[in-house]
Amino acid sequence: MEEPKAPEAPQPAPAKGKGMWIGIVVVAIVIVILLAAVFGGLLGPPAEKSLRIGTVLTLTGNSGLEAFGPKNQKGALLAVSEINAAGGVLGNPIVMVNEDDGGVDSQAHDRAQKLVTTDHVDAILGATGSGKCQAVLSVAQPNQVVEISASCTSPVFSNLSYTGGWFFRTAPSDALQGVVAANYSYVNRTFRTMAVIGNDNAYGRGLANVFATEFRRHGGTATVTILPEKKTSYASDLQTILAPPMPDAVYMAEYPTDGLQIMKDWAANPPWSGVKWVFSEGLLDQTAFVDKLVQAGINPATFEGSAPGAYLGVVGALYSDFKTRYQAAHANEDPGLFTGNAYDAVYLLAAAAQKAGLATPTGIKDNILAVSTPPGTAVHGGQWATILTEIAAGHDLNYEGASGALNLDKYGDPLSGYGIWGTNATNKITTLQYFNEQTVVSMLPPSPAPPMPGTRSSAVMPTEQWRAWTRP
Questions:
Q1: Which of 49, 84, 387, 445 is the most exposed place for a label (fewest CB within 10 A)?
Q2: How do residues 422-454 score in pLDDT, each as one tens digit?
Q3: Total-model pTM
Q4: Per CATH, is 174-313+418-470 categorized as 3.40.50.2300?
């Protein structure tokens, strides 16, 4: 049998409080590491040294704006890649977060909300259409985040009481387009009665009303009709608009989807064939509008339209250089409308943040005019290394864009020359006539009010008066 084992001696209890002190030491070490990460950059650059840009663009859907959004996004990304390759902003790469609003205003609002509250962006590039821009601004402005648009042209944004100074754009206001189109219609085409059609959003309402106001100022008669978006037929609307006595012509501010449907319904009624049409730049699209007119059996030979000169290829070497770089990155794809504007918008945001020394919304807002207007060193896209050198030397910049001279005024608006477009014998879009910036200024309503100092055309432009005149 086994001998019984002696009982084991009891183990000594751990020193009182020793475990607690070990825990405290561990926690302290973790805190030190986290503080070093935050203040020393272990987990990345401090937030104010990293420029974060969000985009809200129409990439999908059936609003007609999806014809522009995807290429605009590519233009913005090209600028980001160039800037990051040349050293980034404040020594760090730009972070870009892209969102799709699907052509829906409420979705544009929600995407902007996500960019501000979750992604903590410093600026939002977008949206593609003016109604969507309003939705984005309803988030950006109260949260004091910069919004810059490459394509929202409604006059509603030329209003500091509305934007709070948080809105900028690289596309000119339709307050100018409406003046040019009305002047051309009355003076050059000698129309005296016109129906004016606008889609039911900020873009259509704004441009239609500016056109009508200016056409009436010349002595013509203009009747404005605002049409709902995305109807399957506008035949009944046209019955009212073109009721006898029919107008000499129609000015239409629409996007490709609804504009195409309106033209199909017009062409289906032969008694209306004598009515002339003048379109806005919203329909300046070869594939999504003109080609589809031809496919529907509609001859576009007599149609004309208005658009900023840059959209019609009235551009200089800077656009050509941009186009070459864009096509090299995208299998020779044509940049299309507003893409150069989106590219320029990124450069303005980046240069403003660099000049501020902080990648913050306030820093961008307070410095964007200092990098976009004369006097200052003339720079352009693809010259980020030069931009860094000039800012480091304490110089202001005069950024000259692929989309034109971006001499933003205090409303965040650029000026532009405008063209009249039509189609040639092979149904391709062509420029029929061009009005340079000085000519555009001469078309504006006269005013005794002095011009705003510091703007590109301050010597001749009755700025305050025409902005007040176009303001809703």
A1: 445
A2: 999 999 999 999 998 889 989 988 754 333 333
A3: 0.75
A4: yes
